[in-house]
Amino acid sequence: MAEKNTQSAASPQNANADAPKGASVPNAAETKASAPEQAVEAGAVDAEDLVDAVMEAEAAAIVDNALDEVEAEAQAADALKEAAEWKDKYVRLHAEWDTYRRRTKEQQEVQKALAAEKLVNSLLPVLDDLERSIDYAEKNGEMGLLDGVRAVLAKFVNTLEKDGVEVIDPQGEAFDALEAQAVGTVEDASQPDETVNEVYQKGYKIGTKVLRPAMVTVTTGGPKRASE
Known about the structure:
Elements: H1 2-10, H2 12-18, H3 28-33, H4 35-42, H5 47-140, H6 145-162, E1 165-168, E2 180-187, E3 196-201, E4 203-206, E5 209-212, E6 214-220
Parallel strand pairs: 2-6
Antiparallel strand pairs: 1-4, 3-6, 4-5
Helix pairs in contact: 5-6
């Protein structure tokens, strides 16, 4: 019974009972919330200084937020500017490429036409000689026709050689599969193996490009050719 009376004396209700009449005891929240006010009332902090400090803090926060927004907008503007520059470069590069491709195609067409024109002009004299040979044979018989045809053929081959064409005539040489095509074999022990025995049709090439391989027969049964 004595312990119960002691607890009752320590309870808040008893504390309030001990307080002067008309006065209330502040709770913890009210004490914490009114701490600045109490500091001002106690004279520890000047009210004007406190207001200035609060205003400066709010102003600093506003300035920081504004600076962050300005910086973000500046970065976005820089990104858009850079994207626009790259797009402009791409458009100009694409236009330049189209122009280059068109000019290259036009130049190729011009060069092709010039090459054909040059070839035709170089062959016109050969056509003239063929017509003269035919006319001579018709008027004077066929006795001089063979010589005339041989002369025209030599002139024709000479014209092609001037334009870089080479005749492939590998008679008696070692067979080269890159420039000749074997259409048959001939037994011949007197010649080294794989020697061109006969050329049925000559071939032609320009530089290293074979326009038409020669049609040949190749020997077999002879001694092996020494490796070069």
